[in-house]
Amino acid sequence: MKTRITAPLLLTGLALSAAMSTAHSAEAEGRPYRQADAEALLAADRAFAEVARAKDASAALADLFAANVIFTTEDGKLFRGKEAAIAAIAADLVGAKIHWQPVRGGISADGQHGFSYGFMAAIGPDGATKPLKYLAYWIRHPEGWRVAGFKYARRPQGNTPTATMKPLLPKHAATFDPEGENRHAESLAAAEKGFSDEAQIIGLSAAFARHGGPESMNMGRTASFTIGSQNIGRELFGAPQAGSPIEWSSDGVLVASSGDLGVSWGAIRVKNATPPQSFAFFTIWRRDSADDPWRYIAE
């Protein structure tokens, strides 16, 4: 087991050490807050990706998953914990090897939570390639960054931008507060519920446009990602119309102690369905400060 994790831990540790040593001096020189931490997170993601090339998909992802990871599938299933998540991936990407490349990341004001998304490919035993894209929510642990929430989706063939986008950084830096994670959890769950409640009135297209922003990302239906909440609403649901055939709420949330970044997961329920129908979601949320409204940033 040690030989499997030594390389990514070494690469991640080096990246984190460099980031920690420069974070305060960089901010003092006028650079954006937490830029070094965001760069370290993306470096960790790339380091895991490099090591993954020599492994099966399930073993590669096991290296970066936290013990209590949440994994959602394209067909709406949710798996809790590393063992269940890895078993589901092994059954889906049978014998495949994977490689990936992050194209964007974001970080919390306390530097302890972050996210990344990018493009992935699974190469089967027969050499056939499945183009994928992924979204990961990360939490910093003593041993380095680990993924607390993850999903991937198949994507059609097509041109995809590979240049790294500017990371989403906080407008201030905050120190880690052990009590802060619980204190902000209720507000995030309420934001998720409010999103659903408003969709019942103004419709899904308008609600998705209103509860996100220009930087919001959806995995989308094209080869790339859909950016911007207005675009997301139109692509997923077309022209605005009142009412919604679905409703949803959080079953669990994780929030940075600074209260500006978090992830929510739960079930989307089809209204009036017989028999009952539901499918899982996880959504990453962000806000400028603990006093501002939550807006979804990636899903």
TrEMBL record:
Pfam families: DUF4440. InterPro entries: DUF4440, NTF2-like_dom_sf. It comes from the Bacteria. The keyword Signal applies. SUPFAM superfamilies: NTF2-like (SSF54427). Keywords: Signal. Residues 1-25 form the signal peptide. Coiled coil: none annotated. The keyword Magnesium does not apply. Residues 41-147 form the DUF4440 domain. This is Nuclear transport factor 2 family protein. It comes from Sphingomonas cavernae.
